[in-house]
Every structure is written in C-alpha cells, then in structure tokens.
Amino acid sequence: MLAETICSAVSAAGLGIAALTAYRRRFLAATRIAAYSLVPVGLVLTGVVEWVSGMVFKPSVWIGFGLLGLAWLLFMTTRAVERRAPGKEAEPARAARGGPAPGAVAPAASAPSLGTRPARGAAAPAASAPPAEDFSDIEAILKKHGI
Questions:
Q1: pLDDT value of residue 19
Q2: By CB atoms within 10 Å of each CB, which of 47, 73, 89, 103 scores lowest?
C-alpha cells in the first residue's frame, strides 16, 4: 500500500513538472517527462511493484541470488586461471581453438626448424634464388602502420 502511494505521488509530481515545461513551450521535453512520470503508475497497475516487493522480502530469493553470484564467481575464476596457465592447456581445447600441436612442423619448413644444422666447420648453403613474388608493397603497408 505504501509503495503504491509513493509511486502515485512521484507520477503526480512528474506530471506537474511536465505541465510547467509545456507552459514554457518546450513540448518535446514535456512529453518526455510525462512519459517517464507515467511509468511508476503503470508498474503499480500491472502488479509489478507488488511482485517485486514480495520477492525482495523473501529470504529464499536472496539465497538464490547469492548462489547465482557464487556460480558466476567460480566460473570467472576458472576462466582467469585457464588463461594464465597456457602450457597446462588440454590438447582437445588447443585443437578446438585451432592451435598447432606441440610437435607439429610446417610441411615446407626450412632445415634449421627441422633440427638439422650444418657442422661448425661446414660451409653455409648457397643463397637460394629470390622469391618469385615481390612483397615490397606489403612491407610498405606494414611499415606505414608501424608493424
């Protein structure tokens, strides 16, 4: 009963302010104020205020909100721990994300990445021919963006 009275008083005050605003020829603002001031009465008449006030004063509802908060906290904690330990990630999760397997090697990898190094005294292999494609335009774009 008290909540309905307060909502009615707030709506009446809002409609009074809307009338004063319309008197000053600010009709758009007056219409907006009137719309906001009718919301509390609409909530009372639809029963939302009674439902919310009944829900707020029940201890079981607050226990439910507490459990939801605890579940959210546990979920966020596990996500944070999972992101901080990249080496301990499970293999299926890495495959699902598209990451390479730990021992994977690219099919056309160069010799040093495969682990075959020339001996210390051996001569370095001759420089290969320049690539068929010119990447100067791509390099220019990357330099332009500071990459």
A1: 96
A2: 103
Task: Supply the pTM of this predicted model.
Answer: 0.44
Residue 22, amino acid: A
Q: What is the CA radius of gyration of the chain?
A: 34
What separation in angstroms does the CA of 98 have from each of 90, 91, 92?
Answer: 13, 11, 10
Which token pair is 52?
A: 């919310």
82-116 tens-digit pLDDT = 888 766 555 566 566 666 665 566 666 555 555 55
Residue 19 near residue 30 (C-beta atoms within 8 A) = yes
* Closest CA relative to residue 93, chosen from 106, 78, 107: 78
Instruction: Calculate mean pLDDT across residues 31-54.
Output: 92
Contact (Cβ atoms closer than 8 angstroms) between residue 43 and residue 49 = yes
Record the tokens describing residue 64, joined without a space. 């439910």
* Spatial separation of the C-alpha atoms in residues 78 and 89, rounded to whole Å: 12
Rounded to whole angstroms, the Cα distance separating 33 from 20 reads 10
Q: Report how far residue 58's alpha carbon sits from residue 27's, in angstroms, rounded to the nearest whole number.
A: 43
Residues contacting 55, CB < 8 A, separation 6+: 61
pLDDT surpassing 80 at residue 139: yes
